[in-house]
Amino acid sequence: MEIATVRTAPIAGQKPGTSGLRKKTRVFMETHFLENYVQAIFDGIGGVEGKSLVIGGDGRYFNDRAAQVILRMMAANGAARAIVGQGALLSTPAASHLIRSRGTDGGLILSASHNPGGEDADFGLKYNTPNGGPAPEGVTDRIFEATKTISEYRILVAQDVDLSAIGTTTLGSMEVEIVDPVTDYAALMETLFDFGAIRALFAGGFRMRFDAMHAVTGPYAREILEGRLGAAPGTVVNAQPSPDFGGGHPDPNPIWARDLVDVMMPEGAPDFGAASDGDGDRNMILGKGVYVTPSDSLALLAAHAHRAPGYSGGLKGVARSMPTSGAVDRVAAAMGMPCYETPTGWKFFGNLLDDGKVTLCGEESAGTGSDHVREKDGLWAVLLWLNILADTKTSVKDLMEAHWRTYGRNYYSRHDYEDVESEKANALYDGLRAALPSLPGRSFGGLTVSSADEFAYDDPVDGSRSERQGLRIGFEDGGRVVFRLSGTGTVGATLRVYLEALETDPERMGRDPAEALAAIAEAADEMAGIRRHTGREGPDVIT
Length: 543
Ligand code: G16
Hints:
Layout (H helix, E strand, L loop, with lengths): L2 E5 L13 E4 H4 L4 H12 L7 E6 L5 H14 L4 E9 L2 H10 L5 E4 L11 E7 L8 H13 L2 E5 L10 E5 L2 E6 L3 H10 L2 H9 L4 E4 L5 H12 L7 E2 L20 H7 L7 E5 L6 E5 L2 E3 L1 H11 L13 E4 L5 H9 L3 E4 L7 H5 L5 E4 L3 E4 L7 H15 L3 H12 L1 E12 L1 H14 L7 E2 L2 E8 L2 E2 L6 E2 L4 E5 L4 E6 L7 E11 L9 H4 L1 H11 L1 H5 L6 E2 L1
Parallel strand pairs: 3-4, 3-5, 4-9, 10-11, 10-12, 15-16, 15-17
Antiparallel strand pairs: 1-7, 2-6, 5-6, 8-9, 12-13, 13-14, 17-18, 19-26, 19-27, 20-21, 21-24, 22-23, 24-25, 25-26
Bound molecules: 1,6-di-O-phosphono-alpha-D-glucopyranose.
The site of 1,6-di-O-phosphono-alpha-D-glucopyranose has 17 residues, from loops.
């Protein structure tokens, strides 16, 4: 088969963000855009000759076409083997597991995660390293450098590979193994959780609703929850992945998964509700009449993980991203285990997990995971919750209330200002950064600032330093506000404002979070001039 060497030139804007390269789908479809980036990945990792890679994505628009291009480019670049999810589908955690279990040289995941899909929406591509995790900054820097000097790419002139049937075929001299996307992942889950106990829970009449949001987790949730655990048929809704996620926004939070919240709040609601995102790595947890914030979920899971067989020996330590609330820190302190604070981005957990420093990690952005893979894992979090509910025979609401009484409650909320003009967002952010040294001792909205800094992270394993990772301001009463600009958006800038207030008085733990955080929200606006800079009266999304 003929290998074409195609002349090309660098394309601006191919810098990977928080999690790979995310752009408008139409941008990815422009001439040479995808091919340049794929070749830059190959060049950035020292070539793929003789190597094997896992390939799969969340099924969004262009997933199938992009997978075929990647396979032809792998073959032309001398790769030995591609392991591809049937139909080019793989959830992000399932891809991470395959990379690890099959010992490949990494993988390419086609996804823009929770961003909407479709020709006019978003697409993304990221490289995961042989440990199964997102490439760390050292690697993405090399990939970005390669995008700036590229002059040609190699691609096989060939027909599409039929990815619809499981089995092994060839493309040029490369082997292509097409695997069932669910089987290996489901088997891994069976090793971690007490499926018998969860089955008994469902057999006893426990009712659940899982919203797959028309995204990749549908087939996984159907097989595991309804198939292997005996949840009632229809427990998993919106289970069929579609290229535009049913026209929705596959982000499992109270705004975009409103339907699920509406089902879970009234009398007579199911006992447990959950949702996951486009590529299956995020999760949302609800009980009858209660929404559990991702930060609280991480803390609860850390406190109870030992109830699941995979974690019965206890946890080595925990980690959370900096903007995530300190709820898990309080559990770690009480249980005498280390707790690490990392920048936003799952890639920062990789070294801690590989080095055996932590077992569990999580982020405020609805991501929770453990050392079973090197990605956050939506369904895994749901199964750990189910295992805990089966073991404690307690409701979600009672579990959370007991948790707060034991450890205190970290009221928490994130305010997002989306699609802000970049100059305005930068003016706000840079202005606040410049003011940081002058903030301690000053009062805003009646709250006095006790600390103010820009977060930087020194990786305790490889010594690498990551600077400029968010502005954090602490108040004398234990509250905190963090400002960050998102690294996953595709248009303009998204300003994220993370609000947190600690409550240790049991009498005041049942408040409305918006009320408990009102003073901090006011202080945040006053110190950063959010309304003044953005011209917005309030956030677009509150989670
Ligand atoms: C990605 C990263 C997460 C991060 C999130 C939000 O999640 O993997 O670590 O917390 O983006 O990042 P940002 O605040 O920069 O938008 P996902 O689910 O999109 O892959």
